[in-house]
Amino acid sequence: MKHNNNHGYSATSPRVGSLAAARAKLDLDTNGLGSHWSKLAALLLVIVSSFLGVVLLTGSDAVAETVTPIPQVSTSANTGEKPQSKVWFNAGSWWAVFSSNSVSPSGSWLWRLEPDNTWKNVLHLSSDLAARADTKPVGNVTHILLYSTVPRLVSVEYVPSGNTYQLWPVRPTPTALSLPLDSETAAIDIDSTGRMWLATDSSTTVPVYYSDPPYSSFAGPITLANNITIDDLSDVATLPNGTVGVLWSNQNTKRFGFKVHVDRDPPGNWSGDEVPASQSAQDVGFGMADDHISLAVASDSTLYAAIKTSYNTPGYARVALLVRHPKAGGTSGTWDDLHEVDQLGTRGIVVLNEETRTLRVIYTSDEGFNDILYKESPLSSIHFGPRQLLITGGVNNATSTRQNWTNELVVLASDLSIVRGVLISSGAARPTGTSMPTNTATAAPTDTPTASPTDTATAAPTDTAAPTANRNVAGA
Fold this sequence. Notes:
Layout: E1 15-16, H1 19-28, H2 36-52, E2 65-74, E3 87-90, E4 93-100, E5 107-113, E6 119-126, E7 132-138, E8 141-147, E9 152-159, E10 164-167, E11 175-176, E12 187-190, E13 196-199, E14 206-211, E15 219-225, E16 234-239, E17 243-250, E18 255-262, E19 293-297, E20 303-308, E21 319-326, E22 333-335, E23 339-342, E24 346-353, E25 358-364, E26 370-378, E27 388-399, E28 408-414, E29 418-426
Antiparallel strand pairs: 1-2, 2-29, 3-4, 4-5, 5-6, 7-8, 8-9, 9-10, 9-11, 12-13, 13-14, 14-15, 16-17, 17-18, 19-20, 20-21, 21-22, 21-23, 24-25, 25-26, 26-27, 27-28, 28-29
Helix pairs in contact: 1-2
């Protein structure tokens, strides 16, 4: 299949941002625009501006948003799976991990987005052409789970002098992982003590594993559920209130499941199942649960989950959003009713922008390879605007960052042989520092696990990269 590198957009006139974003912005502060007439005038200004090629948002933080295509790169594995995040921002640049057989040596590479919006491969991570990555940046160190039939954890450290990464000197060799042979995918996160948690699945169970720095071996499994189907999966997220949450689908019960662990508690101590938004479950089609999950966490520990239902019936949500609000002074939470995003679509991810107090659910328009769309909602009152086109057809498996973004966001998607993407940008100058805080807490003691054998991987030679000049747009 032949693809247009510009994805149907002009290279010199980037696509405008969403009118839905403007409407959401106007909804954020009903008193901020003054009278009814000033609100109406502001909305008309947004509409007129959109036809002129920009979206002009009223208010003190007015910005214009553009969507710039990123030229495609050949890949040997798609940008799945659903819970995983392959992109992050650090030190003024965007980075990603995906596999390719069009560079030498072939395998899984770490890529840097260049000032001309092209990808440059900077560090060879593995010869595995089928690996799908989940990334966890912690300051200048990023931990990369390479999930495949031979899963492993690779950690890398930013090198400022070359604007590149090297294998983490603390543990330069990959950590081999022993996961269920029938698992579909896996995801990682790191809690406030520095402990890493890995959530995965098997044909019937939701197992989690854990490891303390330098993550040379993992203990577990700890089984959170034992009645799921082979087509279910899980995701993990650490919350600012000192807890870890694992969300999973359960197509046997036609519900989702969720349990919480308190940081510093014994690893096996987990809460009961909260059964998210069970009050919204309908006895329609194959039920509320399907194996599509993507998590994002707000600074107040509110958890957002883009999910897919199995209702498969006109008039019922297919792509939807779960929202969990933490209870004050405790570790439990309450779940909103299920929020409909779209009655069509698949493989959604959720990204937060707390600066504009909005979220976006990004998803494929329908089953198979199609357009990548998004809908946007204010955080204050979840309600989604109309569909907005993000990447023109022929792709699937949208992926981005778990970091909450502000002025810039990279979104990738793929077909069977290429990775395509867009850079969403708006407003002010990009910060030059890291965008995420580094955990500095001492890791809590754990059970002594049996060390798994590790490969003796070394960094592949790469070109010496010159420091990247900051583009005149701001980073996440």
